[in-house]
Write a structure and sequence with these properties.
GMP Synthetase, Chain A, domain 3; 7-stranded mixed sheet; 2 domains; alpha/beta; Rossmann fold; 30% helix
C-alpha cells in the first residue's frame, strides 16, 4: 500500500467515509502552493467539510503550514477574498520561481503561480540591452524573471496597488537586481508622462487585469517603432474562433494611428470551462 503522503488529495479523501462519491467528483483537482501557503477553491457543496480537506492537504504536503479557501479577485487592485481553513494564520509568504524569490501578501496582492511558464517564455524573448516596461506588474514576477534571465538594460514595473509595489521593491532587493525598478502609479497617468519625457521602451509586457479597457492606448504612448508588445486578454471559445483578441489589437492600433504586425497568439491558461487567458504578441512598424 502507498503511504498516505504519496497520495493525491482525491485518492486520500476517497478513504474517508465522510465523503460520498458525488462529493469526491466535485472535489477540486488542483490547488496553488505559494511557499508555505496552499490556496484551494472549495465548491459551495463542500464548505461544511472544508476543514477536513484543509487538514488533509497539510498532511499530504509537509512543507505547507497554512491552507486558505480562495474566492474571487475583486476591484482594480485585484485583491482576493480568502478564508483560513487549516493551519496557522499567515497571509505573507515567500514563493520561489525560476530562481527568483517573491515575497507577497496573498490577501492584498494579486499573484498567479500558473503564469510561471509564460513569465519565463517572455524573459527568453528579451534581447540584450532592451528597456522593458511591465504594466500592471503586481509584486514584479514578470520583471524579476526578465531581469534575472535576460541581458536587458532595465525593467520598469508599474503597479497601481501600493502594497504590491512595496513588495516589488522588497523582491528587487531580495534578488539583488540592479536592472529592475518598481514604480507605484496608474498606467493611465504614468504612460503619458513617459511620452512627455520621451521615454520609450523596446518591449512592453501587458499583464493586465480582467477589465473592459484594453489599455493599449496607454501602451502605445510608451512605445516606438520596433517595440514589441505582449498583450494579455481574456476571451471565451467563441471569441477565440473569431480572433477577437487580434481584432482588439488592430482596432486599438488604428485608433492610435499606429501600424502593427501580429507575430503570435498563445493560450496561457484555462480560467473556467471555455474561458481563457491568452497572449497576443505584436510589433510596432
Amino acid at each position: 500500500m502507498l503511504e498516505k503522503k504519496r497520495l493525491g488529495l482525491k485518492e486520500a479523501l476517497s478513504r474517508d467515509e465522510r465523503f460520498s462519491e458525488q462529493e469526491l467528483k466535485i472535489l477540486p483537482r488542483s490547488f496553488d502552493v505559494l511557499g508555505e501557503i496552499a490556496l484551494i477553491q472549495i465548491p459551495r457543496e463542500l464548505e461544511k467539510k472544508e476543514k477536513i480537506i484543509g487538514e488533509m492537504l497539510l498532511e499530504l504536503n509537509k512543507h505547507v503550514k497554512t491552507v486558505y479557501g480562495k474566492g474571487k479577485f475583486y476591484g482594480r487592485l485585484r485583491k482576493q477574498k480568502i478564508r483560513l481553513i487549516a493551519g496557522k494564520n499567515q497571509e505573507e509568504t515567500i514563493y520561489k520561481e525560476s530562481g527568483c524569490l517573491m515575497k507577497l501578501n496573498i490577501k492584498t496582492c494579486y499573484f498567479s503561480p500558473r503564469l510561471s511558464t509564460d513569465r519565463l517564455d517572455v524573459a527568453k524573448k528579451v534581447k540584450k540591452k532592451e528597456n522593458v516596461l511591465v504594466m500592471f506588474s503586481g509584486v514584479a514576477p514578470y520583471g524579476l524573471v526578465i531581469a534575472k534571465h535576460s541581458k536587458c538594460k532595465k525593467v520598469v514595473n508599474v503597479e497601481l496597488n501600493r502594497e504590491c509595489t512595496k513588495y516589488a521593491k522588497i523582491n528587487i532587493r531580495l534578488n539583488r537586481l540592479s536592472n529592475c525598478e518598481a514604480v507605484q502609479g496608474d498606467v493611465k497617468k504614468i504612460c503619458p508622462e513617459f511620452k512627455k519625457k520621451k521615454i520609450y521602451f523596446d518591449r512592453i509586457v501587458m499583464a493586465r487585469p480582467q477589465l473592459k479597457d484594453t489599455f493599449l492606448k496607454e501602451a502605445f504612448l510608451a512605445a516606438k517603432k520596433g517595440t514589441i508588445i505582449h498583450f494579455q486578454d481574456f476571451v471565451n471559445q467563441k471569441e477565440i474562433d473569431k480572433d477577437i483578441s487580434r481584432k482588439r489589437v488592430l482596432e486599438a492600433a488604428k485608433s492610435s494611428r499606429k501600424k502593427v504586425r501580429i507575430s503570435d497568439f498563445k493560450i496561457l491558461r484555462e480560467l473556467a470551462p471555455y474561458k481563457y487567458h491568452v497572449r497576443v504578441d505584436f510589433r510596432l512598424l
